[in-house]
Specification:
By secondary structure, the protein is of the alpha/beta class. The chain folds into 3 domains: 2-234, Ribonuclease Z/Hydroxyacylglutathione hydrolase-like (Metallo-beta-lactamase, Chain A), CATH 3.60.15; 245-352, Oxidized Rhodanese, domain 1, CATH 3.40.250; 361-461, Oxidized Rhodanese, domain 1. The protein has helices at residues 34-42, 63-70, 153-168, 199-205, 215-223, 233-242, 247-254, 260-270, 280-285, 300-307, 324-333, 346-352, 365-374, 386-391, 426-437, 449-453; strands spanning 2-8, 13-20, 23-27, 46-51, 73-76, 87-88, 94-97, 100-106, 115-120, 126-132, 176-179, 197-198, 257-258, 273-276, 292-293, 315-318, 339-343, 361-363, 379-382, 393-394, 398-399, 418-421, 443-446, 460-461. A hairpin with an 8-residue loop joins strand 8 (100-106) and strand 9 (115-120). Helix 3 crosses helix 5 (215-223) and helix 7 packs across helix 11 (324-333).
């Protein structure tokens, strides 16, 4: 028996490879399916099943392409409806992979088709459960993503409560829990950085699995403090239900190398968004006017999904040389299939061609402290999440979370310096680039973010402050 977790940090997502006696199953694969195919071929195994725990909202699964490439059967649990060929398994049904058995456990609550897969070893003993977004390490799936007119988040939470207590918690304590996500995913509130655990430890430590917890307490706790989901989530669900363009075609379209002249012409002809994926500090020194910076080395794909509302918008991108394929791949993971080319030679070629260049003003935390010491009325905008802001922030700062920056634009000044920061500098540069593109010329980024500011004498406060921009 071979069980491997294939974890992708930028999405905080876990896919799984299961193999026994020449047969394999893949659970919740990513969009790029070649690694799964190559692994099976290397081991002399045939991929028999592609098991989907639910219709994912935060990424586009590779189930359609993987099934077409290998002949594997796509499997969903009860209530799933697709426009492509898929086997809809019944609750309690058992599938075989080599000498292993995989039992289908319908666990609705996160979504109504949510299903967990219980893996039994060669002797028939329960070995591991793949819980999708039903049970995370330290948390459970949010129950608000599948809300419909006849089903509230509270009703979904009741389903989740029953699924956990009737299907998962009765299992033995030594069963390994393998979830679909870890810390950093928007599919839960407070997931652990650990990506697997024993069920027994989760029963002892996960707030949502308390033995004495009532359904009313569960509903209240799992629905409290839910931030609005990113706007691209419903679009990814639609793609996962209905299918999508072949990843090879998406890659071919996106990997067209364009000279500065051709790049500029393409922007003018198509109205494409210019996405600069370089490091924030490099972007600040010079970039194509109106370009948006989302660095490839951060949580790139989720931020693209959160901040580019039109998933079908053409994208032209700037990347570090040699990383162009990575950019297109990571865009496609969240359904942004319309990259139409990149700047050949990177930003250096644009600069060397003599074309117009813009910059972002940046200052160190010590320089910010000096400015703040002279005038505490300067405009300080903290783009971290509300919870981060509430824990501690610059005394006079206002909170405009990056996820929903567009909602705050009307309250931000265009005629005075605006000092932006996040925790370390990644998000504030994204915010600065968005503001610059919208005509905010007096944007100043504080390098090192709040982590660096915290080491200065700038006054800070650590209580909830009602200063969020209105």
């Amino acid at each position: 028996m071979k069980v491997e977790q294939i974890y992708t940090g930028c999405l905080a997502q876990g896919a799984y490879y299961i193999e026994s006696n020449g047969e394999a199953a893949i659970i919740d694969p990513l969009r790029e399916v070649k690694p799964y195919i190559e692994q099976a071929e290397k081991n002399g195994a045939k991929i028999k099943y592609v098991l989907e725990t639910h219709f994912h909202a935060d990424f586009v699964s590779g189930h359609v392409d993987l099934a077409k490439a290998t002949g594997a059967q796509i499997v969903f649990g009860p209530n799933a409806k697709t426009t492509f060929d898929a086997y809809i398994a019944e609750d309690g049904e058992e599938l075989t992979v080599g000498d292993l058995t995989i039992k289908v456990l319908h666990t609705p609550g996160h979504t109504m088709e949510s299903t967990s897969y219980l893996l039994k070893d060669e002797q028939g003993k329960d070995y591991a459960i793949f819980t999708g977004d039903t049970l995370f390490i330290g948390d459970v799936g949010r129950p608000d993503l599948a809300v419909k007119s006849d089903l509230t988040q509270e009703q979904l939470a009741v389903h989740l409560f029953n699924s956990l207590r009737n299907k998962i918690m009765p299992l033995a304590d030594d069963v390994i829990v393998y979830p679909a996500h870890g810390a950093g995913s928007a599919c839960g509130k407070n997931m652990s950085k650990e990506t697997s655990d024993t069920l027994g430890n989760q029963k002892a430590t996960n707030y949502a699995l308390r033995a004495d917890m009532t359904v009313e307490e569960f509903v209240k706790e799992v629905t409290a403090g839910l931030a609005p989901p990113p706007g691209y989530f419903p679009l990814n669900v639609k793609m996962n239900k209905e299918g999508y363009a072949n990843i090879d075609e998406v890659m071919q379209q996106g990997l067209q190398a364009l000279s500065p002249e051709a790049f500029e012409a393409a922007v003018n002809e198509t109205g494409a968004l210019v996405l600069d994926t370089r490091k924030p500090e490099e972007f600040a020194k010079g970039f194509i006017p109106n370009a948006i910076n989302i660095g490839i080395d951060g949580n790139f794909a989720p931020w693209v999904g959160a901040l580019i509302p039109d998933i079908a918008q053409p994208i032209l991108f700037v990347a570090e040389e040699g990383r162009e394929e990575e950019v297109v791949t990571r865009l496609a993971r969240v359904g942004y299939d319309h990259a139409i080319g990149y700047l050949k030679g990177g930003f250096t070629s644009w600069k060397d061609s003599g074309k117009e260049v813009d910059t972002i003003s940046s200052i160190t935390a010590d320089e910010f402290a000096a400015v703040y010491g002279q005038d505490k009325d300067i405009k300080v905008v903290d783009v971290r999440k509300p919870g981060e802001f509430q824990a501690e922030h610059v005394e006079t700062a206002e909170n405009a979370p990056l996820d929903f920056l567009n909602d705050y634009l009307a309250a931000l000044p265009k005629n005075e310096n605006m000092y932006l920061h996040c925790a370390g500098g990644y998000r504030s540069m994204i915010a600065a680039s968005i503001l610059k593109a919208r005509g905010f010329e007096k944007v100043v980024n504080v390098e090192g973010g709040f982590k660096a500011i915290a080491e200065t004498a700038v006054p800070k406060t650590a209580f909830v402050c009602p200063s969020t921009l209105q």
